[in-house]
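Hello again, I could really use a second opinion on something today. For a while now I've been wondering how a particular protein folds. Please have a think about how the structure follows from the sequence. Here's the protein in full, and shout if anything looks odd to you:

***
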Amino acid sequence: MTSVADANRAFFDNMSQTIRQDPIKAQWIAGINDKVTNFLQSHIDWVGLSHTKTNAPDRNIRHLDYACGDGVLSRALHPYVTDTVGIDISPLTVSSYNTTNASLNPRHPIRAVVGSLLDKSDPNPVSLSTPEFFNFDIVTGGLAFHHFEDAAYAAERLRKRLRPGGVLVLTDFLTGGDMLIDDDGNVVEGSEGDHYSHIRRHHANGHGHHHGHGHEHAPDTTAAKGDIKKHTMDSIVVTAFSIQEVKDFLANAGFVDIDVRVMPEKVFVDFGKKMLRTIMFAKGRNPGDGKDEL
């Protein structure tokens, strides 16, 4: 049976190629990226990075961007950090990341490597065991946790990569935050809900369900109503999280000072079904030993 990790690797290798070949899809994905970047930078005080260079200009501020994609969050936080490392399971995505961001910060190169921290049979992979992959000030995960089989385990593994007092910041979709768009491009009033919730099943962390949805995956429009493509089902665990679910899995992973903020402006997606979706940002701090601030 194909694992979620294998499905994710294959899917995002394919996405890395197809986005470049589909200018319409690339355009609205860029629109999502711009909105996420603008929200994150306008809430940089909430993240805790706004005064780091001012207060400690000679200190390295280290950022791990996990499931980094092409580096949206890496670029968003680039002005506020001095060192960025991306990790992604997809080799083609990593190649795209390194090409896209090669000249962004010549003094402090932004780079990504292929790898996974979520394989329970290999929780401490040798390739990610050197000091450069630990003691980060901030770890981010952008629209990634809904792909992970066990959100609490993923958060716990990422917490292990933070220094004491460091923070995890993640973005994901909010349960009930979808609205449909009709053929004329208008919002369908009263359509609020979860429009990619086709298939439900319990998954590893015991508090969610298995859905297919359209973040990076289209419903199979050739199949019977309620069916989705096999690779979609394999690579999606939940379509979205409630605020309480995020708070719970971060707490279960050992984080403290947990907070969630919802981006007021919805984002447009079109993977066979046009809709607006709602993105939330969540933050948790790795318990510190007196060194609690970024």
User: Anything to note?
Assistant: The longest strand covers residues 162-173. The longest helix spans residues 23-42. The chain has one domain: 4-175+240-285. Residues 198-233 have pLDDT under 50 and may be disordered.
